[in-house]
Amino acid sequence: MQYPEVIQNLIDDFTSLPGIGGKTAERLVFYLIKNGGQEELQQFGKNLMNLKTTIKTCRECGNYSLNELCDTCRNIKRDKKSICVVANAEDIKYLDNTHSFNGVYHVLGGLLNPSEGVTPDKLRIKQLLARLRKDKTNEIILGLNPTIEGESTIIYLKKKLKEDFPEIKITRLSRGLPMGGDLEYADEITLASAINNRIEI
Fold it and tell me: Which pLDDT score, from 0 to 100, does residue 20 have?
Protein backbone atom coordinates (compact mmCIF):
# COMPACT_ATOMS: atom_id res chain seq x y z
CA MET A 1 0.00 0.00 0.00
CA GLN A 2 1.26 3.45 -0.92
CA TYR A 3 0.57 6.40 1.37
CA PRO A 4 -0.56 9.69 -0.19
CA GLU A 5 2.47 11.70 -1.27
CA VAL A 6 2.17 14.36 1.45
CA ILE A 7 2.13 11.65 4.16
CA GLN A 8 5.05 9.74 2.65
CA ASN A 9 7.07 12.94 2.30
CA LEU A 10 6.62 13.71 5.99
CA ILE A 11 7.50 10.12 6.95
CA ASP A 12 10.68 10.48 4.88
CA ASP A 13 11.45 13.78 6.62
CA PHE A 14 11.18 12.17 10.05
CA THR A 15 13.27 9.11 9.08
CA SER A 16 16.05 11.45 7.92
CA LEU A 17 16.49 12.45 11.58
CA PRO A 18 18.93 10.44 13.75
CA GLY A 19 17.36 7.71 15.87
CA ILE A 20 14.00 7.67 14.06
CA GLY A 21 13.15 4.59 12.00
CA GLY A 22 10.29 4.01 9.60
CA LYS A 23 7.79 2.70 12.16
CA THR A 24 8.43 5.55 14.58
CA ALA A 25 8.14 8.07 11.74
CA GLU A 26 4.78 6.61 10.73
CA ARG A 27 3.48 6.81 14.31
CA LEU A 28 4.55 10.46 14.55
CA VAL A 29 2.90 11.41 11.27
CA PHE A 30 -0.38 9.66 12.06
CA TYR A 31 -0.39 11.16 15.54
CA LEU A 32 -0.13 14.62 13.97
CA ILE A 33 -2.94 13.81 11.53
CA LYS A 34 -5.26 12.54 14.27
CA ASN A 35 -4.41 14.91 17.11
CA GLY A 36 -2.76 17.98 15.63
CA GLY A 37 -5.03 21.00 15.30
CA GLN A 38 -4.42 23.64 12.65
CA GLU A 39 -2.99 26.09 15.18
CA GLU A 40 -0.70 23.51 16.79
CA LEU A 41 0.65 22.35 13.43
CA GLN A 42 1.27 25.93 12.32
CA GLN A 43 3.18 26.60 15.55
CA PHE A 44 5.15 23.38 15.04
CA GLY A 45 6.14 24.50 11.54
CA LYS A 46 7.00 27.98 12.82
CA ASN A 47 9.26 26.52 15.52
CA LEU A 48 11.11 24.48 12.89
CA MET A 49 11.64 27.56 10.73
CA ASN A 50 12.87 29.53 13.75
CA LEU A 51 15.71 27.04 14.22
CA LYS A 52 17.41 28.50 11.16
CA THR A 53 16.23 32.10 11.37
CA THR A 54 16.85 32.89 15.06
CA ILE A 55 19.49 30.49 16.40
CA LYS A 56 23.06 31.80 16.29
CA THR A 57 26.44 30.42 17.30
CA CYS A 58 28.02 32.10 20.32
CA ARG A 59 31.09 33.96 19.06
CA GLU A 60 33.01 33.05 22.22
CA CYS A 61 32.35 29.36 22.85
CA GLY A 62 30.37 28.04 19.87
CA ASN A 63 27.23 27.19 21.85
CA TYR A 64 23.78 27.79 20.34
CA SER A 65 22.29 31.11 21.34
CA LEU A 66 19.74 33.79 20.47
CA ASN A 67 22.43 36.45 20.94
CA GLU A 68 26.05 37.07 19.98
CA LEU A 69 27.06 35.64 23.36
CA CYS A 70 25.29 32.68 24.97
CA ASP A 71 23.84 32.82 28.49
CA THR A 72 26.83 30.96 29.95
CA CYS A 73 29.43 33.31 28.47
CA ARG A 74 27.41 36.37 29.57
CA ASN A 75 27.01 35.07 33.13
CA ILE A 76 29.40 37.09 35.34
CA LYS A 77 29.15 34.43 38.07
CA ARG A 78 30.87 31.87 35.84
CA ASP A 79 34.56 31.14 36.40
CA LYS A 80 36.13 32.24 33.11
CA LYS A 81 39.49 30.77 34.14
CA SER A 82 38.18 27.22 33.80
CA ILE A 83 37.13 26.00 30.34
CA CYS A 84 35.48 22.65 29.63
CA VAL A 85 35.99 21.54 26.02
CA VAL A 86 33.08 19.55 24.57
CA ALA A 87 32.43 18.00 21.18
CA ASN A 88 28.95 19.39 20.56
CA ALA A 89 26.74 22.16 21.92
CA GLU A 90 24.22 19.69 23.34
CA ASP A 91 26.95 18.23 25.60
CA ILE A 92 26.91 21.49 27.58
CA LYS A 93 23.42 20.77 28.87
CA TYR A 94 24.34 17.27 30.05
CA LEU A 95 27.37 18.53 31.99
CA ASP A 96 25.71 21.70 33.28
CA ASN A 97 22.75 19.77 34.68
CA THR A 98 25.12 18.10 37.16
CA HIS A 99 25.72 21.50 38.87
CA SER A 100 29.31 20.33 39.41
CA PHE A 101 31.04 22.77 37.06
CA ASN A 102 30.85 26.55 37.27
CA GLY A 103 33.30 27.42 34.52
CA VAL A 104 32.66 28.12 30.85
CA TYR A 105 32.66 25.89 27.78
CA HIS A 106 34.22 25.60 24.34
CA VAL A 107 32.46 23.64 21.59
CA LEU A 108 34.74 21.89 19.08
CA GLY A 109 31.95 21.04 16.68
CA GLY A 110 32.79 17.33 16.55
CA LEU A 111 35.61 14.87 17.19
CA LEU A 112 38.64 13.94 15.13
CA ASN A 113 37.81 11.23 12.62
CA PRO A 114 40.17 11.34 9.60
CA SER A 115 38.37 8.45 7.87
CA GLU A 116 35.26 10.65 7.77
CA GLY A 117 37.22 13.73 6.75
CA VAL A 118 37.13 15.34 10.21
CA THR A 119 40.66 16.69 10.60
CA PRO A 120 41.89 19.31 13.13
CA ASP A 121 41.22 22.18 10.72
CA LYS A 122 37.54 21.16 10.58
CA LEU A 123 37.11 21.62 14.34
CA ARG A 124 37.10 24.83 16.41
CA ILE A 125 40.62 24.20 17.72
CA LYS A 126 42.11 27.44 16.36
CA GLN A 127 39.36 29.37 18.11
CA LEU A 128 40.20 27.60 21.38
CA LEU A 129 43.89 28.47 21.08
CA ALA A 130 43.05 32.09 20.25
CA ARG A 131 40.77 32.22 23.28
CA LEU A 132 43.54 30.92 25.54
CA ARG A 133 45.95 33.54 24.23
CA LYS A 134 43.41 36.27 24.94
CA ASP A 135 42.11 35.21 28.36
CA LYS A 136 43.86 34.04 31.52
CA THR A 137 42.98 30.36 31.93
CA ASN A 138 44.00 28.09 34.80
CA GLU A 139 42.46 24.79 33.70
CA ILE A 140 41.22 23.07 30.56
CA ILE A 141 38.86 20.14 31.12
CA LEU A 142 38.55 17.80 28.15
CA GLY A 143 34.91 16.77 28.51
CA LEU A 144 34.81 14.46 25.50
CA ASN A 145 33.07 11.14 24.91
CA PRO A 146 35.14 8.05 25.88
CA THR A 147 35.09 6.72 22.32
CA ILE A 148 37.92 6.05 19.87
CA GLU A 149 37.29 9.45 18.28
CA GLY A 150 37.10 11.12 21.68
CA GLU A 151 40.37 9.55 22.82
CA SER A 152 42.09 10.56 19.57
CA THR A 153 40.90 14.13 20.06
CA ILE A 154 42.09 14.16 23.68
CA ILE A 155 45.57 12.94 22.64
CA TYR A 156 45.80 15.60 19.92
CA LEU A 157 44.58 18.44 22.15
CA LYS A 158 46.81 17.41 25.04
CA LYS A 159 49.91 17.55 22.81
CA LYS A 160 48.89 20.88 21.27
CA LEU A 161 47.98 22.50 24.57
CA LYS A 162 51.12 21.27 26.36
CA GLU A 163 53.26 22.73 23.58
CA ASP A 164 51.56 26.14 23.43
CA PHE A 165 50.36 26.58 27.03
CA PRO A 166 52.54 24.50 29.40
CA GLU A 167 51.37 26.56 32.38
CA ILE A 168 47.71 25.54 32.01
CA LYS A 169 46.47 22.50 33.92
CA ILE A 170 44.84 19.95 31.59
CA THR A 171 42.35 17.43 32.95
CA ARG A 172 39.85 14.94 31.56
CA LEU A 173 36.67 13.40 32.89
CA SER A 174 37.33 10.45 35.19
CA ARG A 175 36.96 6.87 34.05
CA GLY A 176 33.50 6.46 35.56
CA LEU A 177 32.08 6.84 32.07
CA PRO A 178 31.92 3.55 30.13
CA MET A 179 34.29 3.23 27.18
CA GLY A 180 32.44 3.80 23.93
CA GLY A 181 29.61 5.66 25.66
CA ASP A 182 28.20 9.12 25.01
CA LEU A 183 27.69 11.91 27.55
CA GLU A 184 24.10 12.06 26.33
CA TYR A 185 23.29 8.66 27.85
CA ALA A 186 25.12 9.05 31.16
CA ASP A 187 23.05 9.87 34.24
CA GLU A 188 23.71 13.09 36.16
CA ILE A 189 25.28 11.31 39.15
CA THR A 190 27.83 9.54 36.92
CA LEU A 191 28.61 12.77 35.07
CA ALA A 192 28.95 14.73 38.31
CA SER A 193 31.39 12.10 39.61
CA ALA A 194 33.33 12.23 36.33
CA ILE A 195 33.69 16.02 36.66
CA ASN A 196 34.51 16.09 40.37
CA ASN A 197 37.07 13.28 40.06
CA ARG A 198 38.63 14.50 36.83
CA ILE A 199 42.18 13.38 36.12
CA GLU A 200 45.13 15.58 35.25
CA ILE A 201 46.83 14.48 32.03
Answer: 93
